[in-house]
Amino acid sequence: MTRIQANLLLLLAAAIWGGGFVAQSTAMKAIGPFWFIGLRFMIAALAVLPFMLFEARKGPVKTAPRHLKLYLLTGLALFGGAATQQIGLQTTTVTNSSFITGLYVVIVPLIAVVFLRRSPHWIIWPGAIMAVSGIYLLSGGQLSALTTGDLLTVVCAIFWAGQITLAGTTVSETGRPLALSAAQFAVTGACALAVAVVTEPISWAAIWAAAPEILYVGIFSSGVAFSLQIIGQRYTTPSQAAIFLSSEALFGASLGALLLGETMPPLGYAGCALMFTAMLLVEVVPEIARRRASGRLKPSPNLG
């Protein structure tokens, strides 16, 4: 596979995820947020299960109790992110949700600073300031204009960042990304269904009405897009992958405008642009610095 083909796969994954924001928003006209999350992730777990079983046959590392704990913690973080995002979509727009969710790109390095005691690249600090400034502009220059959904989506981004951090640790120890994927989907689905049974009414008519959205995010946003991401990232550079995958926010905003008729004032678009720039800088600048440092360390062919 060429790098151009790999980047096109990543762009397709981002487009699928962007469409997922629209599906998540429209589904709640028929079904409660926790029923939607539960059914979505149970379908996602079933979609990944055959691939997980195939992976298990070749897995060099046996599953240990510590791995099960990591699977559980990652699933709980995913549940926290999914729940706050889904509830937030009740009182915020698809555009705001897609861009604010993308702040996990900035938050992940900050988690590494606080909990893992890792020194971040210098770009993290201006990136964080740009991201917060973007949220301020998204509110129209008035923090009181931020809705409860916007604030919940900020919390969602923190949960996503925690999930990404835990997932990185888990995969590095187990070498089984599909096992982690199926496990975290199952944990999230089970937690959501447990909450839904207690707090939300349900009927077959409601499930049937939301079935297209449930199937889309369950099969495509989770199963297909996740697979496209894994395949694509094997044949391209991390910096290019970051650029194409972060376009998820642009697809979410574009589809929100096209399909749902969402609009925002010019100041809001400026905020989105600032947040998107921060996401790219945090991913691309450290990769460029790493490449330059690697190039300087290579021995000259004239030596020796």
UniProtKB/TrEMBL annotation:
Residues 7-139, 148-282 form the EamA domain. The chain crosses the membrane at residues 33-56, 68-87, 99-116, 123-139, 151-171, 178-199, 205-230, 242-261, 267-289. It is a multi-pass membrane protein. It is found in: Cell membrane. Pfam families: EamA (PF00892). The keyword Translocase does not apply. This is Transporter ywfM.
